Amino acid sequence: MIECCLEDAPSIYEHEAQVAGGKELIASSATAAGYSPVEKQNPENRPDKEKTASLSEMFSFADSRDVTLMVVGSIAAVATGVSFPVVNILFGQLINALNASGSNFADRIQSLALYLVYVSIVNMATCAIQVGCWSAAGEHQAQKWREKYVRSILSQEIGWFDVIGASELSTKVAEYTGKIQDGMTRKVADLIQYAAQFLGSFVVGFYLNWKLTLVLLGAFPLIGGAAAFLIQAITSAQVKSSENYAKAGGVANETLTAIRTVSSLNIQFEILNRYRVYLLEAMQIGITKGLKVGLAQG
Asked: pTM of the prediction?
């Protein structure tokens, strides 16, 4: 009887063949769906690998109201940037007037001081318009990006959540949309303002003393290299720290969701260690970024 049952039972080789066939079926199904079995282990091949978007793609949700606000904010940003070289010119003339003598000394100082007050008022007004317009346009477009991001997440297949990690999505949605909003508001406005300030300063420099301006241009490659190193350090640190914070948020989300299971298994200490490791890695990345930023700024 036992021998008959053993003869009918599948052998160990047949069982291994079935397991291998099942793995091949899973792998082929994952490949057909666009996922690779090693994507879970190799973060570089994960589907959520960041890609650089163009300006047209970033502002693809802008309507006529947003375009109007961005145009007005850009004009105000240019005026804000140009006002700084004007302040430098007036301040230089004020210093020269203080060293001069004559009957109209007080009138000259008073006139230059009033000009400085007028320029400061214009600077405050244009800066407020710049920040207000770009913030309003960026907030409106960022809300559309959030809706599209969540809609895209909800339309994915079930296997996609196994590869990505569903517990990390809530952190990533808030973080990535926050970055998009920051890039469409303060960053763009600052870029326009500093570009206008940079060009305006060189125009004023060439107009007042072109020889000294040419000498100062010799240090421009060093300044550009330091700025490129600074941008690379900040960008790399932000990407790596964002990944660690997303993983830490995923651990916290999973733990709070299954808190009864965690308590029953008494694994609070292990989960706390996992959470702490991600935060310590993010802290080390932040310290390294600070050292690089300090080195780039001299």
From this structure: 0.60
